[in-house]
């Protein structure tokens, strides 16, 4: 039998892991930092599972040096992390906290000294509480506030940071934070959700504009894409699928890339959907250097007139494996997503900025390695899916596993583990899982280990 040719990725492909500030840093108020909405939310009883908070989490704020060494030992050539806005500007605007800026500068310098390219996300959900007190994402001034903060970061680090990202997953902020109230700041209001989403996108546009004035490298937007498939070919299921897909996926990509919102959003929001000024859409649509795609799962959609607000439900695919979060494992969805972006939006450069899985891992580990075969299988199939999409012409430049460590998984607290490195939250000991060893081999062989 002839052995199939090994999978190989381009030489300059970025191989990284992703994290975010509130999820891993701990010490959220240290050295003059201002509190974020996530600090407040997690300290409000009943909001986060088991009352968990980001007060300590992985203690990366104090262990960053050895953490970078750990990344180096895995062979990562890039690392995606986020800046806590409130460490740099404790009130969100105005006064700069030098200690906060210094922390990120030291982190960037150490990464570079270990041959690791930083990809910096400016906003991964931890809005300064001082800005939330002024209306947060509902205030029309927030694009200016965000651009002011972004500009501080660009001026300090653009000489060393080649990849910037404005927002991480604006859909999650609008949907979880303003529509359903399950994430910070915990509002449940269909009139607020489209407004928050619109201001997020304006903030994205304003930050990109600020970047073009001073920046020399690349800037993009990170969206979470969950492809939607109709449960049947009935008109009702197909229309429900289009609504679900417009609400979650096109709501963000279309204004950013095409300068307009999908028609279906009128149906989704009804009276709550405003007429937006054309100038706002001009601000939102800025030339981008890349799109970051976060992919975890897909949804099979069935029409259900009683379900609020989308009038549809997700049909569980019992024949497939599901994660601890209930998400279906569906690697073909990643191929479909990447080809959809290629065909629909003119094949922009894409990084897979998050992809990973949460399966049961014990809180304590005996021995040097934790075996996590389901996560190894997930990574193998999804990285192979990336390669398949590339062979079909999609312009994919890098892949970031979510996540380097088990960490504070938002409203789930520490109950859900996505890391390729296990975290013992009592001792803060880091232990490699077999998925970390596997990923390391994939990187070292530039993909060949996927087919072994
Ligand atoms: C994404 C988030 C990330 C993490 C993963 C599991 O939506 O960007 O912070 O929570 O999901």
Q: How would you portray this structure in words?
A:
- With 452 residues, the chain is α/β, with parallel strands linked by helices.
- Helix content is 39%, strand content 14%.
- The chain has helices spanning 21-24, 37-42, 60-74, 85-88, 98-113, 129-132, 142-157, 170-179, 192-214, 235-258, 264-269, 278-284, 332-344, 373-391, 434-444, and strands at 14-18, 78-82, 117-123, 163-168, 218-224, 228-230, 290-294, 299-303, 312-314, 350-354, 396-402, 421-423, 430-432.
- Strand 10, helix 14 (373-391) and strand 11 form a beta-alpha-beta unit.
- The radius of gyration is 21 Å and the shape is globular.
- Bound molecules: beta-D-fucopyranose (FCB).
- Beta-D-fucopyranose binds at residues 20, 23, 168-169, 172, 224, 294, 354, 402, 409-410, 418.
Secondary-structure blueprint of this entry?
Layout: E1 14-18, H1 21-24, H2 37-42, H3 60-74, E2 78-82, H4 85-88, H5 98-113, E3 117-123, H6 129-132, H7 142-157, E4 163-168, H8 170-179, H9 192-214, E5 218-224, E6 228-230, H10 235-258, H11 264-269, H12 278-284, E7 290-294, E8 299-303, E9 312-314, H13 332-344, E10 350-354, H14 373-391, E11 396-402, E12 421-423, E13 430-432, H15 434-444
The structure holds beta-D-fucopyranose.
Question: Which terms summarize this structure?
Answer:
452 residues; alpha/beta; 8-stranded parallel β-barrel; 3-stranded mixed sheet; globular; binds beta-D-fucopyranose
Spatial order of the strands in the main sheet?
Answer: 1-2-3-4-5-7-10-11
Beta percentage is 5-15%
- Give the overall shape, derived from the CA principal axes: globular
Order of helices and strands: EHHHEHHEHHEHHEEHHHEEEHEHEEEH
Largest sheet: 8 strands, parallel, barrel
Cofactors, ions and other ligands in the entry: beta-D-fucopyranose
Output the radius of gyration. 21 Å
Indicate the percent of residues in helices: 25-40%
First-to-last CA distance:
16 Å
Structural class: alpha/beta
């Amino acid at each position: 039998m002839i052995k199939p040719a090994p999978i190989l990725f381009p030489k300059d492909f970025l191989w990284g892991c992703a994290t975010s500030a509130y999820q891993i840093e701990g010490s959220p108020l240290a050295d003059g930092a201002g509190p974020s909405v996530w600090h407040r939310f997690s300290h409000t009883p009943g909001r986060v599972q088991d009352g968990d908070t980001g007060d300590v989490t992985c203690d990366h704020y104090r262990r960053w040096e050895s953490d970078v060494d750990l990344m180096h030992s895995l062979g990562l050539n890039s690392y995606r992390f986020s800046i806590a806005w409130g460490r740099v500007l404790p009130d969100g605007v105005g006064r700069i906290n030098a200690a906060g800026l210094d922390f990120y500068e030291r982190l960037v310098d150490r990464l570079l000294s270990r041959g690791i390219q930083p990809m910096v996300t400016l906003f991964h959900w931890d809005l300064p509480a001082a800005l939330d007190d002024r209306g947060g994402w509902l205030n029309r001034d927030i694009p200016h506030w965000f651009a002011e903060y972004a500009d501080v970061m660009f001026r300090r680090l653009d000489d060393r940071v080649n990849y910037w990202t404005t927002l991480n997953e604006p859909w999650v902020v609008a949907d979880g934070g303003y529509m359903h109230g399950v994430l910070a700041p915990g509002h449940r209001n269909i009139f607020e959700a489209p407004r928050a989403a619109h201001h997020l996108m304006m903030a994205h546009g304003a930050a990109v504009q600020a970047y073009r004035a001073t920046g020399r490298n690349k800037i993009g937007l990170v969206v979470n894409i969950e492809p939607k498939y109709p449960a049947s070919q009935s008109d009702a299921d197909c229309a429900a699928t289009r609504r679900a897909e417009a609400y979650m996926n096109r709501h963000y990509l279309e204004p950013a890339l095409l300068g307009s919102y999908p028609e279906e959003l009128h149906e989704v929001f009804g009276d709550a959907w405003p007429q937006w000024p054309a100038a706002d859409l001009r601000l939102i649509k800025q030339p981008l250097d890349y799109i970051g795609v976060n992919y975890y799962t897909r949804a099979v959609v069935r029409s259900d007139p009683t379900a609020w607000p989308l009038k549809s439900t997700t049909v569980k695919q019992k024949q497939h494996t599901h994660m601890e979060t209930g998400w279906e494992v569906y690697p073909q969805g990643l191929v479909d997503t990447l080809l959809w972006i290629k065909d629909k939006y003119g094949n922009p450069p894409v990084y897979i900025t998050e992809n990973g899985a949460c399966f049961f891992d014990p809180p304590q580990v005996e021995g040097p390695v934790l075996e996590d075969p389901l996560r190894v299988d997930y990574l193998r199939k999804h990285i192979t899916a990336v390669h398949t999409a590339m062979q079909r012409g999609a312009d994919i430049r890098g892949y970031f596993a979510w996540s380097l460590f088990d960490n504070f998984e938002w409203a789930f607290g520490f109950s859900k583990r996505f890391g390729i490195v296990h975290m013992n939250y009592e001792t803060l000991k880091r232990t490699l899982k077999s998925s970390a060893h596997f990923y390391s081999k994939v990187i070292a062989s530039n993909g060949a280990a996927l087919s072994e």
